[in-house]
């Protein structure tokens, strides 16, 4: 099995251009596999659930892994998320801003924060609609201490090929619109997973989140 992971990693790396970061989605993987993944060259791990991530972080505390929270963030879990993750991809609603401010003030530094957007209709996904995000820009700008670095999105199931590309391109265009409104710090685009990351990269992704192609979940 060790050789299998190494081979999958090499094949995947060959398809990702320089300048595009890879977050290995490790939510279904056990600690020995994650340790192997790190030694193969994967340094950014993405987890959906804070409690499960904490256990893995404790077991792997000897390794300088960068941990990303990519799952839905509950308001009551914000203090834990701020303490345990260097990146939070899933700031998906305005009600998270006050607890993020309180938690970040208590810790003294902010994780890198991404605004999760939902530009395609999907009742199973959360995120900012474009109009809603634009309407809250002043609120976000006034939120002291929060380190906004980009946007994140997840597509509805079934989006492939050109349909996926066009959806990702909408997020890229939103990013450019935000740049025009003074949000030049939003340089990251976290979009694309195992089934659709080539389309995301073509549309301008700077981070892709890959799980099953690596770990065969």
Task: Please explain how this structure is put together.
This protein is α/β, with parallel strands linked by helices and 217 residues long. The chain has one domain (2-215): Alanine racemase (TIM Barrel). It contains ten helices and eight strands. The chain has an eight-stranded parallel β-sheet with strand order 7-6-5-4-3-2-1-8. Helix 4 packs across helix 5.
Describe the SSE topology.
Layout: H1 2-13, E1 21-25, H2 31-40, E2 44-47, H3 50-59, E3 66-69, H4 78-84, E4 87-91, H5 97-107, E5 112-117, H6 130-135, H7 137-141, E6 147-153, H8 161-180, E7 188-190, H9 197-203, E8 207-210, H10 212-215
Parallel strand pairs: 1-2, 1-8, 2-3, 3-4, 4-5, 5-6, 6-7
Helix pairs in contact: 1-2, 4-5, 8-9
Please name the defining characteristics of this protein:
217 residues; alpha/beta; TIM Barrel; 10 helices; 18% strand
Topology as a string of helices (H) and strands (E): HEHEHEHEHEHHEHEHEH
Instruction: Please state the structural category.
Output: alpha/beta
**Helical amount among residues, as a percent range?**
40-55%
Number of helices: 10
Q: Give the N-to-C terminal Cα separation.
A: 13 Å
The share of residues in extended strands comes to: 15-25%
CATH fold name: TIM Barrel
Corresponding CATH architecture: Alpha-Beta Barrel
Per the principal axes of the C-alpha atoms, what is the gross shape?
A: globular
Q: Name the CATH class.
A: Alpha Beta
Residue-averaged pLDDT, rounded? 95
Domain count, please report it.
1
In CATH, the homologous superfamily goes by the name Alanine racemase
Task: Strand order, main sheet: write it out.
Answer: 7-6-5-4-3-2-1-8
Number of strands: 8
Please outline the major beta sheet. 8 strands, parallel
Gyration radius, rounded = 17 Å
**Unreliable residue stretches:** none
């Amino acid at each position: 099995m060790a050789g299998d992971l190494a081979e999958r990693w090499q094949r995947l790396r060959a398809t990702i251009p320089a300048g595009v970061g890879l977050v290995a989605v490790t939510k279904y993987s056990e600690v020995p596999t994650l340790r192997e993944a790190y030694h193969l060259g994967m340094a950014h791990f993405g987890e959906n659930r804070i409690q499960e991530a904490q256990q893995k972080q404790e077991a792997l505390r000897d390794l300088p892994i960068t941990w990303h929270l990519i799952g839905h963030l509950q308001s009551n879990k914000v203090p834990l998320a701020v303490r345990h993750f260097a990146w939070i991809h899933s700031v998906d609603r305005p009600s998270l801003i006050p607890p993020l401010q309180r938690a970040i003030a208590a810790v003294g530094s902010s994780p890198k924060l991404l605004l999760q957007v939902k530009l395609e209709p999907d009742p199973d996904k959360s995120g900012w609609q474009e109009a809603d995000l634009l309407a809250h820009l002043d609120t976000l700008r006034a939120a002291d201490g929060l380190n906004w670095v980009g946007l994140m999105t997840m597509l509805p199931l079934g989006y492939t090929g050109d349909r996926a590309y066009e959806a990702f391109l909408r997020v890229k265009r939103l990013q450019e619109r935000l740049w025009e409104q003074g949000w030049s710090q939003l340089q990251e685009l976290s979009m694309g997973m195992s089934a659709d990351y080539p389309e995301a990269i073509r549309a301008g992704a700077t981070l892709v989140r890959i799980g099953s192609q690596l770990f065969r979940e």
